[in-house]
Amino acid sequence: MLFGHDPMVYSHEINPSDQKVLSNQESSVLPENITSQRMQITDDLQKLLDILPEEIRSVLEQHPQQDRLIEVVMDLGRFPEVRFPQGAEYLLETPITQEQINHCVQRVGHFSGDNRAGIERTLHRISAIRNRPGEIIGLTCRVGRAVFGTIGMIRDLVETGQSILMLGRPGVGKTTALREIARVLADDLHKRVVIIDTSNEIAGDGDIPHPAIGRARRMQVARPELQHQVMIEAVENHMPEVIVIDEIGTELEALAARTIAERGVQLVGTAHGNRIENLIKNPTLSDLVGGIQAVTLGDDEARRRGSQKTVLERKAPPTFDIAIEMLERQRWVVHESVSDTVDDLLRGRQPNPQVRTAHENGKVTITREFPTAPVATPPNRAGLSSVQAKSTGWRSSGQMKPLSRPLAEPYSENRNFEQLLNQSWQEQDDFANGVRMPGPNGEDLPLHIYPYGVSRHQLEQVIQVLNLPVVLTKDMDSADAVLSLRSHVKNHGKLRSIAKARHVPIHSVKSSTIPQITRALRHMLDMDDPSMPEVTDLRLFTQSGTEDEIEALEEARLAVEQIVLPKGQPVELLPRSPKVRKMQHELVEHYRLKSDSFGDEPNRRLRIYPA
């Protein structure tokens, strides 16, 4: 499958380099296939040949590769050159004369301000090279072909109504794909489509547009520098649902594109540049992907990110929701979210876009390539915003890949823990003559608990986050159970005697920490299941729930679940403040692992050890 002005439109086998790429792709990400439409080609090649001098036309009409012609180049004093997909060759060994150039110029339309002209009712493009006095001394006659069915790879994206930006080097087929998108939107999806045709390249030369655009309307531009004004005029005067624009190349056009997108009009455009990185580095077009600005970070934020104090960040939402990099004719790279891709690139991370490949059998396969350094993006959790990954440390090293839940034997320590817990409750002491009950005595929920020596704030946090049917009471008479520190139970005989008199069971924890309080409450509510892992809700371990706290806890969680537990290796985390390190210690304790802090402030950090 080939696109653009390149006339080579027949199916080809994937070359060895593509096969190597496909072998490294993750075929299970998007297993479905999309069937592309059978392509039909309309080129009106004879109309282009008719404008050429007789000696050149006669040779071309007999050329065996006539149907694969891309361009005819005629420069004054040089041999006429013809270009095909496999290369270029001289057509004659007679130099081009000024009379031959004038012969062609007289038979084409008017040359506009960008030195382009066309042939009426065709898609061919004739570009001129002028000398200093302004006389035409060279022509590039490019064959224009309408290839129907070229957007089979992205038709599902076109139908979403989101704005689409197509990138690629000159000649890869951006304009041809744009023309087909306009036709599909107008004819198949019945939308009001207006094409801003600056050089009459999309809909052809002349006042009547080429049939290849279907029912879409075309607005011509008097001078290239007025393109941005015509873009705004189209929105204000003709009530379009879709604006199609080719070759956005100036800052004013980029601003006009943003204005159109913010008015709720779907925008489909092209720009020169192979990858999104090219646009980020291009100050003229960077606004298409949101714009780039330098931001100065505070000392703490820069230390937390592990970056310099001055960093680059995206300035605004991107004009286009989706970007398509047309790297090859059979292989397009799709960025479903331009904002996420730009943010990843600015933070030094590798995006993981879709790769859509057209095969010889007409199928379009959607896969994802593993980037060179994959980033473990934490999943969205209830009530939590997505935590962005770091550009340093384990989180960007590609070694953290989230583990699937549930695991075969997720936490083998649970059974040992349950045995120890049961043994501790069966120990005899001064205030109980028998075995303590492991839970409430059949009381109706919610369970009323009398806390003694345990942080009430942490108790309320666990109850609220886990949505437990527990009510804290200050009256021992209304309590169903007592939750106390183990040291308080041993040292306060009065508590034991009161609980014994009222037949209220006492549950103790070694220390007032989130993990131990959580286990105790789950045990009291008979919610323990040794075969299932405990749910790790990071909100349990935060104090203020800020993004910094959540991000630090997510870093610790990923380190434990992806490295310490499965690989048995110790891990060092990024430097954190004492308050945040305390939260990380509690989270590590939740996994029944050990950790300690080392280093000097402000570089003091956690080290997590395997069990």
Summary keywords:
18 helices; elongated; Beta-Lactamase; R3H_AAA; disordered N terminus; 611 residues; alpha/beta; Rossmann fold; 4 domains; 11-stranded mixed β-sheet; nucleotide-binding; single chain; 28 strands; 6-stranded antiparallel β-sheet
How would you classify the helix and strand content by structural class? alpha/beta
Number of strands: 28
Oligomer: single chain
Largest sheet: 11 strands, mixed
Give the tally of structural domains: 4
In CATH's first tier, which class of the largest domain applies? Alpha Beta
The CATH architecture name of the largest domain reads 3-Layer(aba) Sandwich
Amount of helix: 25-40%
CATH homology superfamily name of the largest domain: P-loop containing nucleotide triphosphate hydrolases
Shape: elongated
Low-confidence stretches: 1-38, 371-418, 424-441
Mean pLDDT: 77
Query: How far apart are the first and last residues' alpha carbons, in Å?
Result: 56 Å
Q: Can you tell me the CATH topology of the largest domain? A: Rossmann fold
Question: Compute the gyration radius: what is it?
Answer: 35 Å
Beta-strand portion reads 15-25%
Count of helical regions: 18
